[in-house]
Amino acid sequence: MNLISQKKRLKDRVCNSFARWINDVVIPFNVVNYDSFKVFCEALGHYGPGIKPPSFHEIRVPLLKKEVENTCSAIKDHGETWAKHGCSILSDGWKDKREMTLINFLVNCPKGSMFIESDDASSYAKISEKMFELLSKFVERIGVHQCGSSGHQ
């Protein structure tokens, strides 16, 4: 068997195993569009055969803690850009399967957009004063001097 057909067989085996797993645990298909998925596949390929998957505890405790630290670091890094170049607040509202109104808050800057938080606004989505209060608190949290045109001096 030549190297090309052997590589194709290995790739087919990997892709079929992945497809079986993704269907077994009901993960959305669009995960393959994430850059982090491509990074994961590359890292897995560099390790080679015989890697032991992380345990339930490893995923739940030390690896989750590390991801929280990475996220906090990314937010801090973005925050420095907000302070230097200004930023824009983005929000969108939507209803989930249970008809709860959820509002997402993101911050956009030259580094890109970053999701910051989500709020259950089911009880007050139609009350403009409450919505203004929610947005105002978020702007204060980010820093009013960094938002919109006031961030550019």
UniProtKB/TrEMBL annotation:
One matching Pfam family, short form? DUF659
Domain DUF659 as annotated: residue spans? 54-145
Stored InterPro entries: DUF659
In Swiss-Prot or TrEMBL terms, this protein is called DUF659 domain-containing protein
Specify the species. Dipteronia sinensis
Its lineage reads:
Eukaryota, Viridiplantae, Streptophyta, Embryophyta, Tracheophyta
